[in-house]
Design brief:
By secondary structure, the protein is of the alpha/beta class. The chain has 14 helices and 16 strands. It has a seven-stranded parallel β-sheet with strand order 10-9-11-8-7-12-13, with helices on both faces. Strands 5-4-3-6 form a four-stranded parallel β-sheet, with helices on both faces. A three-stranded antiparallel β-sheet has the order 1-2-16, with no helix packed on it.
């Protein structure tokens, strides 16, 4: 397709989405829930078709040489499709924030002023690899009264098409407006540029993916952007840590699912416990053949079990069984390292000292900060939000796991009796 044809098609989708958004904004919570349940059922009915489409993406990914962790992130089977459908049903049970009164007061002249939560409008979401994002994004936008235009990556294009088709067609049987959920059916890079420039139709754009994608969207966007940047997550094992607990937390954060943004990438260890802790930890990490890239102190302790870390490792999101390790002399050193190299996603301290923990929690600049808890809990469902759009590393207007409330804005409604100023 030519750039002109791409622009024409995406702009037409934007116009249709705007019309749908106006209809979605006035749907009752019960009606939206009815639509969601119909979408869930349609997804289950289309399970075989979705898995078959996914097989095409897996084959293409293998031919491209995608790593095992990324292929697992991409893969769908009937159980995973069923899990996606179940997550839709969970969203249907969540409280609908639209119409919620945030505040109310009376003007000195007697007018009643009310602040009410309302949908944002039309949201564009650009993402890579994970086909479940197609469903998560669509259902959360619907529940919060927003139309959405989705642009997935080439790795999951067949899966995304099948999922989006099932969601829209299933939803329409229960009253979903036409054009409420639209997937851009091609993956030309020009489509990202077009979406970023169509502020007439998009009220917000959310990029989820690698640093290159996000920086491209930010540099081009003519509408607000909520960034879901790298998950360069840290765990700091303090001098007063329970080392058995620390080993379990690090093992979980690194190996439970290394291909996701809340997985541990850099481990910091206090010098007073490093010699005791590292061999204990390696015994657990060897179960998954985790590659350790360490500083000179780590190399002295582990010998051939580790390789030398380089500067760029500290700011790398591996999304694999690789971990950079550094020995520090204080919690202040750990905090400085995290605030220098971290992405503002999720960071943890393991310590039995409450004052040290409080210092860490209040001075580490991240969306989620943990004390004696694995960073793997940075997740909308784990926080009780249901499915999530993603985890924002921005500070405005949303931070951390983004769900229904973060997909709304607010409106002032003023009622009077012929008042003039």
């Amino acid at each position: 397709m030519t750039p002109e044809e791409i622009k024409e098609q995406i702009y037409a989708m934007g116009e249709q989405a705007r019309k749908a958004a106006l209809k979605l904004a006035v749907l009752s919570a019960d009606k939206k829930n009815e639509i969601l349940l119909a979408m869930s059922q349609a997804l289950r009915s289309a399970s075989a078709k979705i898995v078959s489409a996914n097989a095409l993406d897996i084959t293409a990914g293998e031919e491209k040489g995608l790593g095992s962790a990324l292929l697992d992130r991409l893969r769908l089977d009937e159980a995973r499709v069923d899990a996606i459908a179940t997550s839709i049903e969970k969203v249907a049970k969540l409280h609908d924030p639209v119409g919620e009164q945030l505040s109310q007061w009376q003007h000195p002249q007697g007018m009643e002023i009310e602040q009410v939560r309302v949908p944002i409008g039309v949201i564009g979401i650009i993402y890579e690899s994970r086909p479940n994002v197609t469903s998560d994004a669509a259902v959360l936008c619907l529940k919060s009264g927003n139309a959405t235009i989705l642009r997935g990556g080439s790795e999951a294009i067949h899966s995304n098409r099948a999922i989006a088709e099932a969601l829209q067609s299933g939803g329409e049987t229960a009253g979903l407006p036409e054009g409420a959920i639209q997937l851009i059916p091609f993956t030309d890079r020009e489509s990202v540029k077009v979406m970023a420039g169509m502020d007439k139709w998009l009220d917000l754009i959310i990029p989820r993916g690698g640093k290159g994608l996000i920086e491209t969207v930010v540099s081009l966007a003519r509408m607000p952007v909520i960034k879901h940047y790298d998950g360069i997550c840290h765990t700091y094992v303090d001098s007063e840590a329970n080392l058995s607990m620390a080993a379990k937390i690090v093992h979980n954060a690194k190996t439970h699912k290394p291909s996701v943004c809340n997985a541990l990438e850099t481990l910091l260890i206090h010098s007073s416990v490093a010699e005791e802790f590292l061999p204990q930890l390696v015994t657990l990490l060897d179960e998954n053949a985790v590659e350790i890239r360490g500083d000179n102190t780590v190399l002295k302790i582990l010998g051939d079990r580790a390789q030398a870390v380089i500067e760029e490792d500290w700011e790398t999101e591996y999304l694999d069984y690789i971990m950079s390790v550094k020995v520090v002399n204080s919690v202040e050193n750990a905090i400085t390292h995290i605030n220098t190299y971290g992405s503002g996603h999720s960071d943890c301290i393991v310590t039995e000292n409450q004052e040290t923990a409080q210092q860490f929690l209040t001075t580490v600049d991240a969306a989620c900060v943990y004390h004696n808890v694995s960073t793997r809990f940075s997740d909308g469902e784990e926080f009780g939000f249901g499915a999530e759009i993603g985890i924002s590393t921005d500070k405005l207007h949303a931070r951390g796991p983004m769900a229904l409330k973060e997909l709304t804005s607010y409106q002032y409604r003023i009622r009077g009796n012929g008042d003039i100023r």
